[in-house]
Amino acid sequence: MGKSYKRSSFLVNPNLLWVVLIYLILVTAVYYYALSDDLETLLALDDVRLIVESENFGVIAVMAAIYIINLLIIYWCSEQYFGLLSIKTDCIILHRPLKFSKRIRFDEIQSIGVDIGTTGAFWIYISSRNIPFKYHNKINRLTPKRGDIVFAYSDRAYDSLCAYLPKDLRKKLAASRSIFRLYE
């Protein structure tokens, strides 16, 4: 099998990535500032029973639970918002944070296009299977399988795909862009 050279690489949604990183830094700093005295008090206690019974433990436990839920939500959404999409000479690869990369060869692509989600935002989808009809006009409800790449639409992503995809896939992608006229 020949070597696959990189043609183009870009973050799927760089603006949202920066917003989330700033959010995490601010939340961590606020939590540290607000809870540092409580944490020091708890860490000074030797017995686990005393730690659990202390008045500071409940506050720290609730704040930690909220922080962990935030991290889990960000991790769950990471594929569609924080991935690095690489277009090679023979395939498309979505590098996902803390997950395995997804690779779809051009000759495996069955479905490609732009669609609208249930929130009114546009999405680009690339799949090695035919997307079921029930996901048309609600593509963000599709749970991406191994052969599915779904991410938020951006002009840069669309232009890069049009520039580097084979001609037949480029035509399919361009034809699906007519959805913008329906929602103008």
Can you describe what's shown?
This protein is of the alpha+beta class and 184 residues long. Helix content is 48%, strand content 20%. The protein contains 6 helices and 7 strands, in the order E-H-H-H-E-E-E-E-E-E-H-H-H. It has helices at 14-44, 48-53, 55-82, 155-164, 167-176, 179-182, and strands at 6-11, 84-88, 91-95, 102-105, 111-116, 122-127, 148-152. It has a 4-stranded antiparallel beta sheet with strand order 1-2-3-4, covered by helices on one side. A 3-stranded antiparallel beta sheet has the order 5-6-7. A hairpin with a 2-residue loop joins strand 2 and strand 3 (91-95). The N and C termini lie far apart (45 Å). The mean pLDDT is 82.
Number of helices: 6
How many β strands by DSSP?
7
Distance between the termini: 45 Å
Strand neighbour order, sheet with most strands: 1-2-3-4
Shape: elongated
Task: Summarize the biggest pleated sheet.
Answer: 4 strands, antiparallel
Q: Which class of secondary structure composition applies to the elements?
A: alpha+beta
Give the strand content: 15-25%
How confident is the prediction overall: mean pLDDT? 82
Low-confidence stretches: none
> What is the chain-wise order of helices and strands?
EHHHEEEEEEHHH
Helix content percent band: 40-55%
Rg, Å, rounded? 22 Å
